[in-house]
Amino acid sequence: ILKIKNIILSFVLVVGGLVLFAPKVMAATLTVCASGCTYTTVDAAIDAATTGDTITLGAGSYAGFTNDGTKNITITKADGVTVLPTITSAVTISSSGTTTITGLNISGTTITASAGTVTLLNNKLATLTASGTAAVEAKGNYWNSATPDFGTIITTSGSATVNYTPYYTVESMLGSNITAISLNTASKTIEVGEAYNADITVTSVG
């Protein structure tokens, strides 16, 4: 009986060791491009992705996409792409996981989020609708206007929340191709406590 117990104990320890030292599955990068890639649409890459994966987009225009289920994924422009990839139709986020979208031009369509945590970073955006339980962090984006009316372009309902910054951060705007930054005045002297609003013009291509 003692020998049988020892054998069982040894088996448990071996199996436990195999589980303990099983290698972690590494996150993958799935590339989307117009031709020559495994994926030619963002939706196809999302379908193939597993949680933690990154989907990168080559230069060009792509149809909108949907992330649902529970996947935690990042969707961004590919390394070396100097002009933001353009998304031409609606983006829908209903995943209860996390979705990060960065470095894309979504200025011609709407992003709709209804669940999960959504991070929008360094994109060109038009309008955003958040509903249900969505929690949206929108930072460092260009909102398709020099003076965006956030009461119009961002709408929320239910318990959804949207935290946003109004303008992009120049030094971190991915692929913005900024060619010039200028002020409306070369110099200005103000008294202590006095306020002066300067107009900044940013010229970019792409």
Could you explain how this protein is built, in words?
It is a single chain. With 206 residues, this protein is α/β, with parallel strands linked by helices. 15% of the residues lie in helices and 34% in strands. The protein has helices spanning 2-20, 42-48, 150-153; strands at residues 29-32, 54-57, 61-62, 66-67, 73-77, 86-87, 91-93, 98-102, 105-113, 117-121, 124-130, 135-139, 154-156, 161-164, 178-183, 200-204. It has a seven-stranded parallel sheet, covered by helices on one side. The radius of gyration is 23 Å and the shape is globular. The chain starts with a helix and ends with a strand. Residues 11-22 and 169-174 have low confidence and may be disordered.
Overview in brief:
This protein is α/β, with parallel strands linked by helices and 206 residues long.
